[in-house]
Specification:
Layout lengths: L6 E6 L11 H4 L4 H15 L2 E6 L3 H10 L6 E5 L8 H9 L4 E5 L21 E4 L4 H14 L3
Parallel strand pairs: 1-2, 1-3, 3-4, 4-5
Helix pairs in contact: 2-5, 3-4
Bound molecules: 1,3,4-trihydroxy-5-OXO-cyclohexanecarboxylic acid.
């Protein structure tokens, strides 16, 4: 682990492990491992270390958030369906006092009404949706700039 670089956490919530085969017309055909690989590489170019986690379990994501509160400088999160349901996740994100970048591959506002509500957007530094995997890259650029004080 490179101790010197600022660290940015990327968290992918429930069902995002299925990317590539899950509803490809909505979420594309790229696999999560490929997206994470590009983000790690981009992080190197931007001078930050990127650590990615995917979990299908709300409690595991909460524990992970608690564990990175001292070690990391920002969180990029696609909470999946938890976006629309989880006060627990919102409280955990609030509790660690780090800048939050909320990402969705699809444009949730152009989809079913239950996806229009996010418990996370109100506490996020930025929300990126509808840009596919590129949304993570824009979020990483923004987070790296903020961490560097630019
Ligand atoms: C999603 C949108 C959510 O509504 C959905 O539950 C997901 C993925 C997205 O990336 O577009 O799991 O967060």
């Amino acid at each position: 682990m490179n101790q010197d670089l600022p660290r940015i956490a990327i968290i992918h919530g429930p069902n995002l492990n299925l990317l590539g085969t899950r509803e490809p017309d909505v979420y594309g055909t790229e696999r999560l491992a490929d997206i994470n690989g590009r983000l790690v590489q981009l992080g190197k170019e931007l001078g930050v270390a990127v650590d990615a986690l995917q979990s299908n379990h709300e409690g595991e994501i909460v524990d992970h958030l608690h564990s990175i509160r001292e070690s990391h400088s920002a969180v990029i999160i696609n909470p999946g369906g938890l976006t629309h349901t989880s006060i627990v996740l919102r409280d955990a994100l609030l509790g660690i006092s780090l800048p939050i970048y909320e990402v969705h591959l699809s444009n949730v506002h152009a989809r079913e009404e239950f996806r229009h509500k996010s418990y996370i957007s109100g506490i996020a530094a930025a929300v990126l949706c509808g840009l596919g995997a590129q949304g993570y890259e824009f979020a990483l650029r923004a987070a790296a700039s903020k961490v560097a004080g630019r």
